[in-house]
Hints:
Chain A has twelve helices and 13 strands. Chain A is α/β, with parallel strands linked by helices.
Amino acid sequence: MSHIIDRRKNDKGKSTGNRQKFLKRVEGQIRKAIPDIISQESIKDSHTGGNVKVPVRGLDEPSFQHDPKTGKKQIVRPGNDRFNEGDRIPKPKEGEGGMGRQKGSNNPEVTEDEFTVVLSREEFLKYFFDDLALPNLVKKLMASTETFEMKRAGYTRDSVPSRLNIKSTFQQSLGRRLALKGFLDKKLKNLEEQLANSTHPNEIAALKEEIEKVKRQATTVPFFEDIDMKFNNFERVVIPVTSAVMFCIMDVSGSMGFHEKDISKRFFTLLYIFLTRLYKNVELVFIRHHTEAKEVNEEEFFNSRESGGTVVAPSLKLMHQIIRTRYDESWNVYCCQASDGDVWSKQDAMECKNLVQETILPAIQYMAYIEINNRTKQSDLWQAYNQISNDENFAIRHINEVFDIWPVFQGLFRKRNGVKAG
Amino acid sequence: MMDKEKYRAMFCNPNWDYATLEAADEITSRIGKEYLKLKTYPNQIEIVTSEQMLDAYALTGLPTSYPHWKFGKDFVLNQNNYTKGRMGLSYEMVINSNPCISYNMENNSTCMMLLVIAHACQGHNAFFRNNYLFREWTSAGTIVDYMVFARDFILKCEEEFGEEEVENVLDACHALMNQGVDNYKKPFRLSSVEENERLKKLIAIKRENFNELWKTLPTGLKLPEATSGEDQKFPKEPEENILYFIEKFAPALPAWKREIIRIGRKVAQYFYPQGATKVMNEGFATFTHYHIINKLFEEGYVNDGFMLEFLKSHSGVLYQPEYNSKYYSGLNPYTLGFNIFMDIKRICLSPTKEDKQWFPDLIGKDWLEQVHYVMENFRDDSFILQYLSPKVIRNMKLFTIVDNEQENEYEIGAIHNERGYKKIREQLSNQYDRSSYVPNIQVTKVDQHQTSKLYLTHTIQKDRKLDIESTQETLEHIRYLWGFPVELHSKNKLGINENTFEA
């Protein structure tokens, strides 16, 4: 007897384990290809694409094979339309392919092309950031990654007046008053009946007194009693912090050309993708500055050609102000500043250093300064920042070319002391 | 039993349900048994989604297999091709097991379901059950069981010895799959229960024989047997099953690795008949569904519309692009096999003068008996050599191309004419002979006295040399398993060594 089984509801992904094993094998190639994938898309789009395609060279599974170029072979083919026995046909040149060797189900000498592995977003990020972590995650975050929230948890009889739940207290009181009223009404009715039937004067007097008492009782039922009181009850529930805000500060003075902005953008993109891996909700604040600092949207941040002299300090002040007004302590704040290092004066640089050291760093998790130029001479800003670069949540790096971005990024966020991300 | 009208209504509704499948199975079984006299295993029909079909592809159709990256790679490869539309999934997939498991795609129409059930659950099933290669070389009753054992064993090894080490052994096994088959010896049949018991016994024997004292023996001491027979050759006869030889005689291989090699060998052995009967198997299954569906039509179970859909799918399966078409990818085994089986039937029923000359044994015989005889007793190369008729050669316009390494031109060796039939038939048979695509490599010597070096010999056939790169890589795998140096000599027919590989 035959069995018919509907397997469609069964677990899919029987091959998942094998697929993982395979990915592990091509890990090296995936890692190599990934930095190229960071494209010029908008920062927020570049990680939401879902699938990421990574070209991978076919993995050989060697076995004993004949060299297809050697020997004397006879091959049977179908559909002869013009040949006669003994006809001679020139062989196709090397690499042209042709009758001698083609892909086919019964041809054991099949070659394999390079093919692409489609990674899910999760897999992609795993390879991308596998050995990266926010450097000072433990020190500053562990204590504060969690925050408390008061959550409703039913009612309680005893609490402070501000938590009184008026509706349910009133309901309780109404119920109580109705019950008491019913009871007294019934009692009154009974007594009145007895009074009507009674003839004995003593008894009548007693009954009248009783009726008077019950009537008084009925009018003095208190509107609220202690037992009516219902207070909202709250419990402290731990909620993890899942939000982060990243400040992108970019110098847009005349010296920042397309190349410099492109590098900054790629760097910001990486940082953004990285943060989205750690936090559910990541906000971006773009600040551009020349002589004055301004908060702008992403589009304007990268594309506007407005420029002027360079004063850096106002941008840091603006950032600090934004943090104070918009982001309370439950936010994890990150900052990345990109500049070619040009500043108006040494004084401005010093002011920046002081601002960062005294007001910014205490309020945020991590700040990175990247300087994009290929000069050998160190800029004033670099020199100023260099004085505080030993600070654990501050780092400065040089980037000249696109291919420097990934190593620098890795260097900034390399896991230390086995600290794990996520 | 329902009446015919009810079946008809079901089969002519393109949307199938459970009752339709049951009816389809019941009726194809009945016709298979009564009309085509098929003996089959019980069927287990499974309805799957395309993703599950991809899973099944990756495990080469087995319901379960041990974990390995190769299967993941195949999955990714197929998935890429499938999602890009470069490849369609087949409508079904069958496993040579008892009960015979077949996967059917959920998005098949009712007509396709009937076709697929007739094709797989009657055609392939009967072929697995009756063809001599499958009967003697595989054990349908225990394969599913055995693969469960294999999976569990490999998982245990991964846990105990690390995934990497297990993977190395499996990689080596996969490289030697073609050299892991007994072509002439029939294998024993072992179920997982028996396998487990055999393992237990092995462990018990080892424990009994284990003696701390042996560890104190001075090193370098040679046992008398080893030194005595300087002239004794080992192995006495060349051994073609390299995996078997390593499993039995590798000098320093832990028992668990031997067991994994054994698993690799069993799997290779299990798939060996499938490789050797592709044309026959597909041809016979197509022949079967063609007859069953036509019978259904004759008896009035299906209508004209159904038949139109059927014929479209059927001819799609049999499409054979010509040699110069961009769709050409070798001979279509369905077409070749179906044509030959149909021609056997034709020759039995209405032979021509030519047939009387070529197939005197078939003339006037019962066609069904002959088809059964052929299906049971041949494999692709012998099947083609015996039954590829001039008519089929003419119909398919077969011709041969001679590709000689020494010359700059191809030569047309034979075409579909009087002079060419025999040549084409021999040539094609040759093409399906395993020895023409699996190099003939055998274990010829082991240096037992000093180096433990393993010597292999490749016998060059038709001047076909070994591919240098893949040979070298495969040798590395052998060396890994054997644990000592390996040397391979490519010898021509005069016995002169033409090429030496070392690892």
